[in-house]
Amino acid sequence: MFRQVPCAIVQIVQRNWVPQARFRTRRCRFGVTGTPRPEQAAPPLERENPIDGELRARLRLTPPETVQVQLNARIASWSRAFHAVITFAVATIVFLPSGLGSGPLAERALASLVAGVTFLLAFRLERRNVAFARLSGFARSIYQARAVVLGALVLGSIAYYVPGVDASPGQIGLAAVAMFFAGALWGSLTRRLLGGRAVHRVLLVGDGERVGKFLTEFERDPHPEYEVVGLLTDTGRGLPEDVAGDTTLDEIIAMFDETTRAGVDARVLGTLTDLETVLASEAIDTVVVSVRRNRLELFSRLSGWGGNVSVQELPAFSEHVFGRVPVDVINAAWFMHLIHPFYRPYSRAAKRAGDLVAATFIGLLTLPLIPLTWAWIKVNSPEAPVFFRQNRVGEGGREFTLVKFRTMRPGGDGSWTLDNDPRIFRGGVFLRKTRIDELPNIWNILVGHMSFVGPRPEQPRYVAELEQDVPFYQRRHMVKPGLTGWAQVRLGYTDSVDGAANKLGYELYYLKHQSVFLDFVIFVETIRVVLMRFGSR
Fold first, then answer.
1. 30 by DSSP, 3-state: which?
2. Which of 48-57, 294-303, 482-491 comes out lowest in average pLDDT?
3. Please, are residues 241 and 215 in contact by the beta-carbon 8 Å criterion?
4. Given this model, what pLDDT does residue 69 score?
5. Is 200 helix (H, G, I), strand (E, B) or coil?
6. Cα–Cα nearest to 207, from 235, 181, 238
7. What's the pLDDT score for residue 228?
8. What is the DSSP letter of 452?
9. Contact, 63 vs 170, CB < 8 A?
10. Contacts for 4 with CB less than 8 Å, ≥ 6 apart
11. Per-residue confidence (pLDDT) for residue 429, from 0 to 100
């Protein structure tokens, strides 16, 4: 009886003081108790709380929120329609007018239609890229350029093999340029209209440590297109069981305040019994599932829901949102796709050819810096050799000798580099910030120890430690280490086990999605990172 009093007070606090808190602390888990189904008996010694009905009613969006959600959805829908309109308009302007040597009107009209459909599908294909929103504006423009080139090649092939499509090479080239600028106009207009507001409203289904970690990460690094509305628990425990009967109102409020200060902003909207109610009342369009029990029933209810809702598992959604693989969520089965017969990373010969071209180009471009750097090191630290050699772990766990320009005083212990590390001599800071100290790695690329893009190689002693502390850490050695990589352009330098685990998520993402074009995008992003001096120590 006495336990019902603080529980009711907690729900009042949820409703009035801190409605946006994530109800999870060290002392208890807060939530909303779902009303049992008619065929289910209520738990013993518990009665239906009269506050539940009122609280569930208050979950519905207020009129201003409803208008804003509908407006965001309309803007996104209108934006896609506007992109389709301008794509077909450009195709019509380029291919439909008659001119010298042009064919009949029917052929020109068919060419306009085929061009519009081809370029529109190419743009849609690029927008499905997992890491698209995590790239810089320049890198996103590269993806758009690839879509334009793909559309132009497909359209050229159709025009060559289908006699009824009247499209000359000059028209296709003009259409490609116009489509690129039309896509840029579309993206700029959409971002301006949305004003940074999210388009998709996300409901998490499940609880536990995995969901808590995801919410914390999302709060720290949110995705611009998604808003996490709240979560439904699958434990069936809506009331805070660990709150003592003599807990005061001030103490309960302090619990919520502590949770809020932790950087958490997600509501517990109920249990699985409230699924349909929450989907309707909160205008949910994306459901992320992280439950181990009653999965078939849950998927059956979601598939039978009449609304337009997409469903994803938490690991896949986390990879989509953050551009990395959640190492703490996956298991050994995740690596099965690497041996799947349909998994086709680009060939080792193509990657090796790309490495040689990139290393030769960068080597020739930076060749004048070699004697200048040699003189710089001799002036600032003449007591040791200019080049620094150290064993690192490469592909397959095999060790090789890494060559760099020396930036530290001799006699160091080889430990992780810290901010303002006293071992770095005065001129070495500049070399590390500009990444000039890594130019001798080009030699390792030319002799085949490293690739231009891949995980950065670590020292053997650190690898031995991290393989004990970080799950699947040895899998990063399935590819050659690189001069730069997805982890370097997204995360930067790390100096701890937790940092190594985060970096591994980016490296596994690269392992899964590696391609010639992704290598090129990472190369472009590396130039931006070097110019901004991001992630170096």
1. coil
2. 48-57
3. no
4. 62
5. strand
6. 235
7. 85
8. E
9. no
10. 47, 49
11. 84
Helices of type H across 195-343: 209-220, 249-261, 275-281, 295-303, 314-322
Report how far residue 117's alpha carbon sits from residue 134's, in angstroms, rounded to the nearest whole number: 27
103-112 long-range contacts (CB < 8 A, ≥24 apart) are: 103/166, 104/166, 106/164, 107/164, 107/165, 107/166, 108/166, 110/164, 110/165, 110/166, 111/159, 111/165, 111/166, 111/167, 111/171, 112/88
Q: Tell me how far CA of residue 349 lies from CA of 148, 359, 463, 521, in angstroms.
A: 27, 15, 28, 19
CB proximity list for 212: less than 8 A, separation 6 or greater: 24
- Which strands sit side by side in the sheet containing 200-205, from one edge to the other? 267-271, 226-233, 200-205, 286-289, 310-313
Q: Is 33 exposed, middle or buried (0-12, 13-18, 19+ CB in 10 A)?
A: buried
203 sits in which H/E element: strand 200-205
What is the structure's pLDDT at 414? 62
Does residue 473 contact residue 463 with C-beta atoms inside 8 Å? yes
369, 440 in Cβ contact below 8 A? no
* 103 CB-contact burial (10 Å; exposed 0-12 / middle 13-18 / buried 19+): middle
CA distance 130 to 318: 10
Band the pLDDT of 201: cuts 50, 70, 90: confident
**Strand partners for 203:** 230, 287
Do residues 83 and 123 make contact, with C-beta atoms less than 8 angstroms apart? yes
User: Which pLDDT score, from 0 to 100, does residue 373 have?
Assistant: 92
List the structure tokens of 361.
């180009």
Distance between CA atoms of residues 74 and 95, nearest Å: 31
Q: Which tokens sit at 493? A: 């330098």
Range of 65-79, 92-106, 438-452 with top mean pLDDT: 438-452
Q: Which of 199, 187, 204 is nearest to 224 (CA)?
A: 199
Q: What pLDDT does residue 515 have?
A: 82
Q: How far is residue 455's CA from residue 488's CA, in Å, rounded to a whole number?
A: 8
* Helix, strand, coil fractions of the chain, as percent rounded to 5: 55, 10, 35
Q: Which of 275-279, 286-290, 342-346, 390-394 has the lowest mean pLDDT?
A: 342-346
Tens digits of residue pLDDT in 152-189: 999 999 988 888 787 888 889 999 999 888 888 777 77
Q: Which helix (H) or strand (E) holds 522?
A: helix 516-532
130's tokens: 């997992």
pLDDT at position 404 over 50: yes
Residue closest to 119 by CA, chosen among 94, 97, 98: 94
Checking if the pLDDT of 51 tops 50, the result is: no
Judged by average pLDDT, the poorest of 26-40, 64-78, 240-254 is 26-40
The whole-angstrom separation of Cα 53 and Cα 35 is 9
Cβ pair 474, 444 in contact under 8 A: no
Residue reference for tokens 């993402």: 509
Quick one: pLDDT at residue 249?
A: 41
Report, as an integer, the average pLDDT of 427-451.
Answer: 90
Backbone angles phi, psi at 230, to 5 degrees: 170, -165
